[in-house]
């Protein structure tokens, strides 16, 4: 490839339709007589840290890239995919004959991602290439929804009210990415090699074929009534598509506006957690409320292993952990129960659970995962009070009264093969209250 090039670096936005960064990159290319090359980097810093070579998320990304490349091929264009540390990859790209005049990408809000982007931005600046980052994965970000005094919200309900008051059609309209696709680089210029296989990266296929990024109107209409029942298909399963941007959050919010206020509320929670992470990056590995860093966690490895394997003797907890291990998914209501059990029944540090979910969840998102784990532990923004301790038996009776979910994942429940509870609820509750109270006194 020769001549001026604009790179559109895809990360959490693996689609062509309603793509903010691609839209702006194409317009920039049109103005400067350049071509746009979509780029994805399999970040080896991330890949090498994954504990399994059979990671479902890597499989998902590879499948999504193949689909995306097929869409680009229909327009005579192609996707360039590189493997390596982003800074090194951009160093190589800048050394090629083509003149990279700009890089467009979508905002990321995680501390490690912000540090990565800053290093790339500095490299580009040294070569005279511009860096442009735009909002895409949320409706409102950073400082767009603040209190009247200009400080960030730390309680969800007033945040959601301000969020709703600010919402207008402007924030939900799609970016007409397709309007300028004539300025995409020709397929032959995308570079040799095509899309790397999983084997090329040292990974194995999982055999999963992922559902498309869509949700039925009927499910959304029933969402408020069915979303807490794990034994039925009452949730959207769109978490992974929102995480990797294979579907547009704006299109989903427009659909929710007309069909399900409860579902729209879940999208507001996503924005809330991303906003919190951007304002309070320390919350990734420190308690949002500093007093909770004084907790005397028990952190018994054998008990952590029983929680992970789904052999706690509490069937709802065990069903959730087994579903997670088998599928990479866990129903949201059950996520709350399993997290509460780890933190409050076993008094194991929420960071242990957060890291394990980070390894297992298909839809792992640092902002939401950290926010929800700190909520369960009582240490986070707008968290459940420390004395709110879920009774797993009552949770099962309320949300899985026919034991459909439990029977699916814990078939030996009710037989001698199923273990008794590893800790008695009343005693665990009493112990939890004592430990929390002691920490908050210090």
From TrEMBL:
Listed PROSITE patterns: DNA_PHOTOLYASES_1_1, PHR_CRY_ALPHA_BETA
Location of the Photolyase/cryptochrome alpha/beta domain: 4-139
Biological processes, Gene Ontology terms: nucleobase-containing compound metabolic process; response to light stimulus; response to stress
GO MF annotations, alphabetized: deoxyribodipyrimidine photo-lyase activity; DNA binding; FAD binding
InterPro entries: Crypto/Photolyase_FAD-like_sf, Crypto/Photolyase_N_sf, Cryptochr/Photolyase_FAD-bd, Cryptochrome/DNA_photolyase_1, DNA_photolyase_1_CS_C, DNA_photolyase_N, Rossmann-like_a/b/a_fold
Pfam family, one: DNA_photolyase
Record's keyword annotation contains Chloroplast: no
Keyword 4Fe-4S applies: no
Cofactor annotation remark: Binds 1 FAD per subunit.
Cofactor(s) recorded in Swiss-Prot or TrEMBL: (6R)-5,10-methylene-5,6,7,8-tetrahydrofolate; FAD
SUPFAM superfamilies (UniProt xref): Cryptochrome/photolyase FAD-binding domain (SSF48173), Cryptochrome/photolyase, N-terminal domain (SSF52425)
Record-marked site positions (Electron transfer via tryptophanyl radical): 297, 350, 373
Similarity comment: Belongs to the DNA photolyase family.
Designated name of the protein: Deoxyribodipyrimidine photo-lyase
């Amino acid at each position: 490839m020769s001549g001026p090039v604009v790179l559109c670096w895809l990360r959490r936005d693996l689609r062509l339709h309603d793509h903010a960064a691609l839209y702006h990159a194409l317009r920039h290319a049109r103005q400067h007589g350049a071509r746009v090359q979509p780029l994805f980097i399999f970040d080896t810093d991330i890949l090498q840290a994954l504990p399994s070579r059979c990671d479902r998320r890597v499989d998902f990304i590879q499948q999504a890239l193949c689909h995306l490349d097929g869409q680009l091929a229909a327009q005579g264009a192609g996707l360039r995919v590189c493997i390596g540390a982003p800074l090194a990859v951009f160093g190589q790209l800048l050394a090629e004959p083509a003149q990279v005049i700009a890089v467009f990408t979508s905002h990321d809000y995680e501390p490690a991602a912000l540090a990565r982007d800053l290093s790339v931005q500095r490299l580009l600046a040294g070569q005279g290439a511009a860096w442009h980052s735009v909002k895409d994965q949320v409706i409102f970000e950073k400082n767009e929804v603040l209190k009247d005094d200009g400080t960030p919200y730390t309680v969800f309900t007033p945040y959601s009210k301000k969020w709703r008051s600010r919402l207008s059609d402007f924030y939900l309209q799609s970016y007409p990415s397709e309007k300028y696709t004539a300025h995409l680089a020709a397929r032959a210029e995308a570079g040799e090699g095509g899309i790397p296989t999983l084997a090329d990266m040292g990974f194995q296929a999982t055999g999963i074929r992922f559902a498309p990024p869509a949700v039925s109107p009927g499910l959304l209409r029933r969402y408020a009534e069915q979303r807490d029942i794990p034994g039925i298909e009452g949730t959207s399963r769109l978490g992974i598509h929102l995480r990797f941007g294979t579907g547009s959050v704006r299109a989903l919010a427009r659909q929710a506006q007309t069909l399900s206020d409860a579902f729209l509320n879940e999208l507001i929670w996503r924005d809330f957690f991303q906003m919190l992470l951007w304002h309070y990056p320390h919350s990734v590995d420190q308690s949002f409320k500093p007093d909770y860093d004084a907790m005397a966690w028990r952190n018994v490895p054998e008990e952590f292993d029983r929680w992970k394997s789904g052999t706690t003797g509490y069937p709802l907890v065990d069903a959730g952990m087994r579903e997670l291990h088998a599928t990479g998914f866990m129903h949201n209501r059950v996520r709350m129960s399993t997290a509460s059990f780890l933190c409050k029944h076993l008094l194991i540090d929420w960071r242990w659970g957060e890291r394990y979910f980070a390894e297992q969840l298909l839809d792992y998102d640092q902002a939401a995962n950290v926010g929800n784990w700190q909520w369960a532990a009582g240490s986070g923004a707008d968290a459940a009070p420390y004395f709110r301790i879920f009774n797993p038996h009552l949770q099962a009776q309320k949300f899985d009264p026919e034991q459909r979910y439990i029977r699916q994942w814990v078939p030996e429940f009710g037989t001698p093969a199923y273990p008794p509870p590893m800790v008695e609820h009343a005693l665990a509750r009493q112990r939890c209250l004592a430990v929390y109270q002691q920490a908050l006194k210090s």
